[in-house]
User: Which sequence fits this backbone?
């Protein structure tokens, strides 16, 4: 599918001609300056050298809103090597937790280190286009990969389109450090009562049915993304906690149902907490779910 952009001129529609950027470095520099806005990723560093063994340079490193380490690779034109190149660097990243975490502390501060979640490192490839073979290939790789297509329209418009996204599978930390074992989101769901599992299945179906939604199984919760996260779901013994990307000040809060969690530490992204304990409560929450989805359009 080709992204088409039109300028409205009264009742007339004029199509804008999209093109690749003149220089790959220009695209990279622009994305790095605006990485949080464009990708929902906090920028850490550029042109990161991987040493003599891997012998290369990672275009960009970042940390996303879920705490996942992110590699971003760019190609100004259509080039299947961008995926292979990113996978090559992912191997370096998995073997150099200490170097990445030192970078997080240097750029974001010591407190940000607690956010880093090595269960699902992420690759974002940004290129002018992809072949159908590229889209198929990432589904076979069992890695968390997003393929993003860009088009420039003149000097002041840039369009980003998520062509394909694969959640991959969670991996162990691999750090060798002794950690306290805590159940993952997947384990909590597997061990939940049948009523809670049925409630989750209903919620999951509703969120995915909005369209253009990707779910990612993370260590502590399941993220539902439309670009950035719009909902994060955590399974509990008596029901579900859902964190929505909505302003709590714009919602009539109800004790036991909705809560303002700005400034309150919690797993998942979103400032509005919604507690769902039954199908009836899920039905009440439906307008809030839709509002969060539409807020990230």
Assistant:
């Amino acid at each position: 599918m080709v992204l088409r952009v039109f300028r409205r001129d009264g009742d007339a529609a004029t199509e804008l001609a999209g093109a690749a950027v003149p220089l790959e470095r220009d695209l990279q520099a622009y994305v790095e300056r605006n990485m949080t806005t464009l990708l929902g990723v906090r920028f850490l560093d550029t042109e990161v050298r991987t040493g003599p063994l891997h012998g290369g340079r990672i275009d960009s490193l970042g940390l996303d809103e879920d705490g996942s380490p992110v590699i971003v690779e760019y190609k100004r034109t259509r080039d299947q090597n961008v995926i292979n190149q990113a996978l090559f660097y992912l191997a370096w990243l998995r073997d150099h937790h200490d170097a990445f975490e030192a970078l997080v502390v240097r750029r974001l501060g010591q407190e940000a280190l607690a956010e880093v979640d090595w269960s699902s490192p992420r690759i974002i490839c940004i290129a002018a286009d992809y072949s159908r073979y590229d889209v198929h290939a990432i589904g076979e790789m069992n890695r968390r990969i997003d393929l993003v297509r860009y088009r420039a329209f003149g000097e002041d418009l840039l369009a980003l389109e998520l062509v394909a996204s694969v959640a991959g599978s969670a991996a162990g930390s691999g750090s060798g450090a002794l950690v306290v074992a805590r159940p993952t989101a997947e384990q909590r769901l597997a061990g939940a009562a049948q009523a809670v599992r049925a409630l989750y299945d209903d919620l999951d179906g509703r969120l995915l049915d909005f369209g253009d939604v990707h779910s990612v199984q993370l260590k502590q919760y399941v993220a539902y993304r439309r670009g950035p996260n719009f909902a994060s779901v955590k399974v509990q013994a008596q029901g579900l906690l859902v964190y929505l990307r909505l302003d709590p000040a714009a919602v009539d809060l109800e004790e036991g149902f909705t809560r303002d969690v700005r400034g309150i530490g919690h797993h998942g992204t979103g400032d509005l907490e919604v507690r769902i304990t039954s199908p009836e409560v899920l039905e009440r929450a439906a307008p809030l779910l839709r509002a969060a989805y539409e807020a990230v359009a």
